[in-house]
Design goal:
By secondary structure, this protein is α+β, with helices and mostly antiparallel strands. Helix content is 29%, strand content 20%. It has a single domain, classed as Fusion Protein Consisting Of Minor Coat Protein, Glycine Rich Linker, Tola, And A His Tag, Chain: A, Domain 2, CATH 3.30.1150.10. Strand 2 and strand 3 form a beta hairpin. One of its GO terms (molecular function) is toxin transmembrane transporter activity.
Length: 122
């Protein structure tokens, strides 16, 4: 009996104000949990001017405790520093304990995450 995992596609803009991002403490729907994951990673992503017009697509999986257990870069940026910053932000954000407040069926759907990081400078 296999469940189809919902793949959360997330994109976000960097604005250099990572310390001001408010990450919710819980979520109840797939969309809320996806937004929470996005915000938590964004709050840990270091900003650099060289990231302008670059994108990185990654995939990661969460275990039952919301720890990142695998990470794959699906489409790397030409800026190595951005690739490293995204990976660091994902692992620094782990565990995503805030998503554990969601119903078990919702959590099962968000255990696989595809994330597109699109740093856009203000």
């Amino acid at each position: 009996m296999y469940r189809t995992l919902l793949v959360c596609m997330l994109g976000f803009a960097l604005n250099g104000c990572a310390n001001q991002i408010r990450v919710p403490s819980s979520c109840q729907t797939v969309n809320e949990c996806a937004e929470l994951i996005k915000l938590k990673i964004q709050s840990n992503l270091e900003f650099d001017e060289s990231f302008k017009d670059q994108a990185v697509k990654v995939n990661f999986h969460l275990d039952q405790s919301a720890n990142v257990i695998s990470y794959t870069m699906l489409d790397a940026s030409k800026v190595i520093k951005l690739n490293e910053a995204v990976k660091s932000a994902v692992f620094t954000s782990s565990p995503f304990t805030e998503v554990l407040s969601a119903d078990s069926e919702i959590f099962a759907e968000i255990k696989e995450v595809n994330l597109i990081v699109l740093p856009l400078l203000d």
